[in-house]
Amino acid sequence: MPTARNGAVGIEYAVHGEGPTVVCCGVAGLGAWQWSYLVTPLAREHEVVVFDYRGTGNSDTPDGPYTVRDLTADLDAVLADHGARSVHLLGAGLGGVVAVEYARRAGRPESLGLLGTPTAPSDVDFDALARLRAPRDDPEAIERSLAVAFAPGTVEAHPDEIRRIVEWRATDDADRTGWDGQLAAMREAELTDLYEVTTPSLVFHGVEDAIVDPEAGRRLTEHLPRGEGRAVESGHLVHVEQPRVVADELLAWLDERRA
Question: The domain 3-256 belongs to what CATH superfamily?
Answer without folding.
Answer: Alpha/Beta hydrolase fold, catalytic domain (3.40.50.1820)
